[in-house]
Amino acid sequence: MSQRSPLVKSAFSNATKFCALFVILLIHAQQSRCSSGDELNETEISFSTPEECARTCVDDEPPKYCHYKFHLEFYTTVGPACNVAEQQKQCVFADGFEKTITTINRQLPGPKIQVCLGDYVIVDVKNAVMGQEVTIHWHGIFQNGFQFYDGVPYVTQCPIPSSSTFRYQFKVENSGTHFYHSHISTHMLDGQNGPLIVKDPPSENPSRDLYDEDEHVIFLNDWMHEFSVERFPGRIKNNLGQVADNYLINGRGNWTDPDNPNDTTNGNLTEFVVTQNKRYRFRIINSFSTVCIAELSIQNHNMTLIAQDGANVKPEHVDILITSSGERVDVIIHANQPVDNYYIVVRGLSECAEKRVQQLAILRYVGAPSTPSRPLPSYDDAPTGIVYNPLNGTTCNSNDTSKAVCVNQLKSVDEDRRPSNVMPDLIQILDFWFFSFSDDGNKLLFETDSYRSFFNTPGATQIVSMLNNYTFETPSSPLLTDARSYETICKTNHPSQCVEPCACTQVYDLPLDTDIELLIYDRVPVQGLNHPFHLHGYEFQVLEIGQHPDGTPLSPADITEIGAAHIKRLQQGLYRDAPGKDTVKIPTGGYVIIRFVANNPGWWLIHCHFSWHHLTGMEMVIHVGEKEDLPPLPPDFPTCSNWVPPIQALNDFYSFRYPVPH
Ligand SMILES: *[C@@H]1O[C@H](CO)[C@@H](O)[C@H](O)[C@H]1NC(C)=O
Ligand SMILES: *[C@@H]1O[C@H](CO)[C@@H](O)[C@H](O)[C@H]1NC(C)=O
Ligand SMILES: *[C@@H]1O[C@H](CO)[C@@H](O)[C@H](O)[C@H]1NC(C)=O
Ligand SMILES: *[C@@H]1O[C@H](CO)[C@@H](O)[C@H](O)[C@H]1NC(C)=O
Ligand SMILES: *[C@@H]1O[C@H](CO)[C@@H](O)[C@H](O)[C@H]1NC(C)=O
Ligand SMILES: *[C@@H]1O[C@H](CO)[C@@H](O)[C@H](O)[C@H]1NC(C)=O
Ligand SMILES: *[C@@H]1O[C@H](CO)[C@@H](O)[C@H](O)[C@H]1NC(C)=O
Ligand SMILES: *[C@@H]1O[C@H](CO)[C@@H](O)[C@H](O)[C@H]1NC(C)=O
Ligand SMILES: [Cu+2]
């Protein structure tokens, strides 16, 4: 092979760089100018590596094209790589309990994506998990202009079958602490998730003067000691329900058998190293799947909260952070304590409280001894102080933040955001609840040939999840790309004509730019459940969060009253600084009112982020705008659908296979 001269080489790579830019920018046009010419050599396109992209962001920098390769496969924790020093990079220790996982690049959590606002993210997802499909959702990214890459199976794309590669590519236009995760089945619980951090250049960062370093990400997983689908729909005799066995902090933790304190994996804890007197921005991601809640606190340190779900807020001092599945918070931690090791304590609330699930990490000051001298905190040493995002929503609509700060009580940094004193175009009420098959002895569930979806609760009853009185039925081809499935949406399935629980592909149509409020409420409260609702494609403002102090259900009269009081407050202009979010936790038996302008056309899922709830129907699609508002379908975008052709007479086959001799 002859070597090209440096001059030719650099001219060549400039041309391909330019060409790569065209591929990205014109990817939605039916024809890409580069794809046909033989001058395109993909191995020579100068995409930036993950390391090059994870840089310090500066103003007025051209965007980078950040290329990631994800290899998904079946793998195990504490596997053979853990025994060999040179192979440690591929050792997934987790909590030291041996189990099957499906990792991305043999890492837990998956590879960190860190880019600057305005960069392009290109991820080639190679699915080598035999017999299992995948899609990856980029949780928090709006995807306006890149609607085909939201990663929701049968809504925005076909699932990626095993042994094939799907290339996600999108420009990142909203900064913040985000993450990615599989959106199929319960797979994110087995390791298919990771951080996606989008940093601002200084001019866009309102908190830039409040901290010195921005390097620490706390990624929280809930963790089971068996493959997650073992619990879907769940058992009714042993290991009932879907409670997590443990939590992991950045993919690591210790595990001790609650029935035998001598039986411990003695797992090393994740360490976050800080230098005394510096101020650190910590980005905290809750990537849970179960209904368990995380309560995070740090010994001897309080925190200054500056963002939630990527939306900047005015700084607020808190001591305890509560998050549920899908939520993220950015806080500043001032390392102003004596040089030492301090425990970061993550306790399990909700269903994980009974098992007293707890995980620890270490905030290590440079110069501190290599092993912590403090006693290990016990689950019962509950932290004290001001709670962010409390489970009890009783005080959320007041001005009282002396004990707890609700997500709607924070103030947006963007002055004078809408809505000020204007009425929305539309207020839509959405309720959610569980339909119990067990109430009538499972007659409906086991009706001949009906095969309804369900899951088994910790109480061994069989239920299905409802949103707006429908349980979502997955179509067989993506709503966004394939009109075939659009024919089957909620047509004959109106509640008056179907037997409860009514199942259909529930789509809510909204004209582009509708200014809409959703009042979402928990119609049939279940003790301890605080459902987090996530909207794809948008950030919404959280206007209200409420509940009856005693947790009793909201009556229709209560909803009317809440609506009237809310409109009064709107007219008084009391929501001027309402903060943003994309996932909001609803108190048990309570409600939230959120608002957004539907200016991002597409098919966007809104759903409870608890896996078992959304998988059994607690979700629907908000369809914004028309086909004309969307970018054109990318060339050769994969398709999928049913194949039920007319049945051919056997004779036709025989005559084809064995032509009748003349
Ligand atoms: C692309 O470039 C690489 C490196 O120069 C070379 O090894 C490879 O053969 C080229 N591929 C094609 C299809 O030209
Ligand atoms: C744990 O180990 C200690 C010391 O070896 C022993 O006394 C104790 O009985 C053990 N506990 C259990 C539950 O096995
Ligand atoms: C793991 O937990 C056990 C039980 O609490 C404890 O004895 C052990 O020291 C812990 N190991 C680490 C590395 O924290
Ligand atoms: C924990 O850390 C110690 C010290 O770095 C190391 O010797 C040990 O192998 C680690 N254990 C595991 C399970 O990673
Ligand atoms: C947080 O800690 C700082 C000093 O470390 C202190 O000035 C501040 O009052 C504390 N805030 C709260 C709410 O405790
Ligand atoms: C909260 O404070 C605002 C402004 O100070 C005031 O207008 C409003 O009435 C107060 N709300 C409540 C519920 O006390
Ligand atoms: C939903 O169904 C329940 C139970 O059948 C019924 O009471 C309620 O009125 C329905 N709600 C709507 C909005 O149709
Ligand atoms: C919520 O907090 C209020 C006081 O702020 C208390 O009266 C009430 O009992 C709590 N409700 C629940 C369900 O814990
Ligand atoms: Cu839910």
Topology:
Layout: H1 6-25, H2 33-36, H3 50-53, E1 65-76, E2 100-104, E3 113-116, E4 120-127, E5 136-139, E6 164-171, E7 176-182, E8 193-199, E9 213-223, E10 246-249, E11 271-274, E12 279-286, E13 293-298, E14 303-308, E15 311-318, E16 320-323, E17 328-334, E18 341-349, H4 351-354, E19 358-365, E20 387-388, E21 404-405, E22 426-436, E23 455-456, E24 462-467, E25 471-472, H5 483-486, E26 503-504, E27 507-510, E28 514-522, E29 532-535, E30 540-546, H6 556-571, E31 580-581, E32 583-585, E33 591-598, E34 602-608, H7 611-615, E35 619-624, H8 650-657
Parallel strand pairs: 1-4, 3-8, 9-12, 11-19, 16-20, 20-21, 22-28, 25-26, 27-35
Antiparallel strand pairs: 1-2, 4-6, 5-7, 7-8, 9-10, 12-17, 13-16, 13-18, 14-15, 14-17, 18-19, 22-24, 23-24, 28-33, 29-32, 29-34, 30-31, 30-33, 34-35
The structure holds 2-acetamido-2-deoxy-beta-D-glucopyranose (8 copies) and copper (II) ion (CU).
